[in-house]
Design goal:
There is one protein chain. The protein has a domain at 39-97 and 118-166. The protein has two helices and two strands. The chain is 77% helix and 4% strand. It is mainly alpha-helical. The model has no long low-confidence stretch (mean pLDDT 85). The protein has a two-stranded antiparallel ribbon. One of its GO terms (biological process) is viral release from host cell by cytolysis. This is Phage protein, putative. It comes from Polaromonas naphthalenivorans (strain CJ2).
Amino acid sequence: MRPLLIALLLAGWSTVIYQVGHTHGAAEVEVKRGLERSQASDELLAANGRVTSAQQQLTDSLSARDATHQKELKNAQVDHDLRVAALRAGTLRVSIPVKAAACAAPAAAGATPAGEPAEARAELTPEAAATLEGIVLDGDTAIIDLNLCIDRYNAVRGTVLQLSQAQP
């Protein structure tokens, strides 16, 4: 009976030791997991802060670029209006080269011919010049809009690259 009692005592003691060791090991694992979660949470908060800061900077940058864009469009319109007014008033004239007549006028007696023939030009009417100026305004506006699009793309791209490189 004594060996049975010793065996039961050893079995009970082993069970207690196992339970204490298992509980201690489980507690260590839980502490380690808690630490990992805490670190991950800190990293997430830091990343969230970086993203929020970058988002605010990008928003401010894009707003400033939009304001500049509006000024550029307004300046282009003002320049256009001034040129059209000058064309209509006759203070600005537009001419284009034209093909010279097939038969040239005879040169005066004793006159020395010029080294290069004079370029024949035709002056546009103010209405035609204003129409061409409207096409120029359309082109300028398209270029200004495209430059804004490129600037906005580059700003967003730069911010995304900056954030992706800041990742641990």
